[in-house]
What does this fold into?
Amino acid sequence: MSKEKKMKRCPVSLQPDVESMLDWNSLTAADFEPATQDEKEDFIPERASVSYWKDAWRRLKQNVVAMVALGVIIFLFLFAFVGPFLIPYGYDQFNSGAENLYPFHYSLEDQIRVEEEIAARTESEVMDVDAMIAKAQEEAAANGEELSAKDIAIIRAQARASSNSAAAEDAETDPAAIRKELGIKAKLFGYSRDELERKAAGEHVFPHIFGTDMYGRDILVRVMYGARVSMAVGIFAALLVLVIGAVYGSISGYFGGKVDAVMQRIVEIIYSVPEMLVVLLIATALKPILTEYVNSGSGPLKSFVNTLGPNLISLFIAFGMLYWVTMSRIIRGQVLQLKQQEYVTAAKALGASGGRIIRRHLLPNCIGQIVVTTCLQIPSAIFLESFLSYLGVGVSAPLPSLGSMATDALSGMYTYTYRLIIPAIVLSVMILAFNLFGDGLRDALDPKLKK
Amino acid sequence: MAKYFAKRIGMAIVTIFLVTCLTFLLMNAVPGSPWLSEKTPSEATIAALNAKYGLDKPVIVQLGMYLKNLLRGDFGVSLKMQRNREVLSIILEMFPVSAKVGAIALVWAVLVGVPLGCLAAFKRGKLTDSILRVICTLGISTPSFVVASILLVTLAGGIASLKIFPTIFDASAGWRSYVLPCFALGFYPMCYTARQTRSAMLDSLNQEYIKTARAKGLKNGKIIFKHALRNALIPVITYLGPQVAFTLCGGFVVESVFSIPGLGRYFVQSIQNRDYPVIMGTTIFLASFIILMNVVVDLLYKLADPRINLTKGGE
It folds into this structure.
């Protein structure tokens, strides 16, 4: 590339400048040396390639609302599936003596103070509790025995019962008013009197954090199981809808023509069926049918039906029959677009079967839509389950459901408001979290939608 | 258009027919009979009752008989809840109650929901928008029985000083009875409408003709209500179709909570009582009503926006 070889160009020449290209012919052997490590590293792109999911996750992370919703979902998940192991009560365990507990309690001393006050006011002839105990201890000592803590508790309970009955007769000795006068404040968590005494004796007693219901069942555990049922129903129903909708929608979209026309007529019919009505009908009608089926003998399928409970199964059947329509429409729309793509033509040219093209090429390419629709299906399934349970055709007793807990609470609604409010709030928060997370996921997976 | 209309009506009839058959078969598959109650009648009585109401014939024959009667407008008579009373007359007595509550609920839902949606779209990204979004998402996440229960424990006696409204519905007691049920029934549609309106408004606010309107110097109010809203209302109408029917004929739950003597509550009770003719009649009535509303909305839809071509599937 000597300078003298280069001809002087006319500044206004229209000829292409070929001088520099001629230099390519004068490469030396040194130009063909293998690249050194440094040079190679220079070529590696600065930014790592970002996969679809990583990209979506990055966008999702920036969405504060969706991340909070995800946190709530994870918390509820742990609450529902791990929580029951941490609490020593069962969902159908009747804790006798601990019926109708509020989610708060008064300490033992305060309770005694209130009782003494009542006793003093009523001027009843109920003996002083301590005097009774002392007397009983004397008697016991005379017989050569020692009075156990339990006996003392019994005496106290008797004394209390008699003072209570006295108090009931007199409106002036309203415990609530006396508590207010004495300035006694409630403490968190529910304990029965018996449990407080055991606790005072040094025994470890687990509190009824949300109180108990009319049978003494711990509400916290029941809410946990109810949340578990709701979540399980939501997720399984969504998966069911996903499978049916994906298969139906992709077949309808891919094969087109008459197949599509017939399949879409069916979809239209199901679409215009009033869902709630039919679901209610199916749930009611199938329950006795399945119950009879289970009772008619035994077998693997029957025991399966029995473990899940006829109600849950009829719920799934109703869901499987009606709710896949939206999913199938969305997937059909996607498939209709995608099947025009070159890679589908290429796969066809290579002799791939229809099923393989759908499975390997079409469905993976509409995964974003599928995930979002499935995720938004979960809250609607939870919604439906609670609705049915509320009307008494959902999950069967004794298994609790948030909906049926709310119905049970309606009778004592004003006195025991917390029994209604707690399941209602858990349910709403759960549906809200799934909805918000689904919305966030849609924005993250499909940035085109977010304008 | 005429062809589409005919096709749509045809589909509606097929759907009603299928729902009728499905309901009939499901009802017949249920073990147990309507005669089983506190005191079981003797077998001879049961046989006589079955013969009287045609329950002794094969299911297919019963279905055929039922369909034939249905075409004549005969829904049969109640077997249990109001023995021997015509189902049609029960429906006609209950439906207006449901319809009144439902109509009020829906009217307030739309009258509040649409402006809220417009406001949110217009204030997009601002605090107002965020607050409305949270409220509306909360609204579509709260089952109506939760809304109803919360209303009951706050405004109907739970808090003594706030006992403004009665717990039990009584049509003769005036407007106070309607407030809580209508609020509970309309809350979900209101939030849903607001969300729909918001996203549709955002779409149409991005259109060129809005820019033109702005360039002309039109006022915000005029741009929103005259230009943007008209186009944004179309998806809202789509949603409202099925919702009108559903709300009108029964928030099953809301009617149960407030003891409203409407069709929704009666339907739930008839299911629990296995009163087959009532279940059948109510289902067919409600289903036909909902399906009919869908058809009407589709046609309105077409009238509202001539650009929509319904014959070619709206993908």
In short: The CA atoms of residues 368 and 445 of chain A lie 6 Å apart. Chain A is about 65% helix and 0% strand. Residues 219-255 of chain A form the longest helix (37 residues). The mean pLDDT of chain A is 75.
